[in-house]
Amino acid sequence: MSTVSYKKLWKLLIDKDMKRKDLREATGISTASMAKLSKNENLTTDVLLKICDALKCDISDIMEVSLDAEVQSDDENKKV
After folding, report:
1. How far apart are CA 4 and CA 58, in angstroms?
2. CB within 8 A of 54, min separation 6: which ones?
3. Has residue 41 got a pLDDT over 80?
4. Which residues, including other chains, have CB under 8 Å from residue 26's CB and lie 6 or more apart?
5. What domains are there in the chain, each with its CATH number?
6. Of 9, 15, 76, 1, whose CA–CA distance to 40 is shortest?
7. What predicted TM-score, i.e. pTM, was given to this entire model?
8. What's CA 48's distance to the chain center, in Å?
9. CB of 5 within 8 A of CB of 40?
10. Which helix (H) or strand (E) holds 2?
11. Which of 50, 57, 62, 61 is nearest to 24 (CA)?
């Protein structure tokens, strides 16, 4: 299973001198979606695109997906 990280989003907000509240107001996303972002939980593509539109960035600028160690080792075993 893959995991999602929004560390890039929080760094981008710092660079743009924005607070989380500013992001929520600029995008119109719910407090529940903001909570999911804080917990690195999955969000709908619609919410992610609203954030990208507001920040004028690409989705890869706000999130990162990484494979779990088990999945990575399975992939490596298939290559051998």
Report:
1. 16
2. 23, 26, 27
3. yes
4. 18, 54
5. 2-79 (1.10.260.40)
6. 9
7. 0.80
8. 7
9. yes
10. strand 2-5
11. 50
Per residue in 23-34, pLDDT (tens digit) is: 999 999 999 999
> Which residues lie below 8 Å from residue 74, measured CB to CB, with a gap of 6+?
none
How far apart are the C-alpha atoms of 59 and 52, rounded to whole Å? Answer: 6
What does pLDDT average to over the chain?
A: 90
| Radius of gyration of the chain from its Cα atoms, rounded to whole angstroms | 15
Question: Read out DSSP for 26-68?
Answer: HHT--HHHHHHHHTT----HHHHHHHHHHHT--GGGT-EEEE-
Give the tokens for residue 50. Answer: 């609203």
- The single-letter DSSP state of residue 16 is T
Q: If DSSP codes are grouped into helix, strand and coil, which group holds residue 14?
A: helix
Q: For the chain, how far is it from start to end, CA to CA, in angstroms? A: 21
